[in-house]
Amino acid sequence: xxxxxxxxxxxxxxxxxxxxxxxxxxxxxxxxxxxxxxxxxxxxxxxxxxxxxxxxxxxxxxxxxxxxxx
Length: 70
Fold this sequence. Notes:
By secondary structure, the chain is mainly α. The chain has a domain at 20-54. It is built from one helix and no strands. 0% of the residues are buried.
């Protein structure tokens, strides 16, 4: 193989280790971005619902926790 060219997979051989590691890191990053987006979407939608409630002039908009804590 000439110098300067990337390692190509050989039929019947093993793939270079770096290609799998890079794909795994990319997968983890994509999953983290999706999870973060879903978390933010949930938070923003809850805040929007409370703001809509307040804008309508209601006084009991925030959810109340009923757990006793004991």
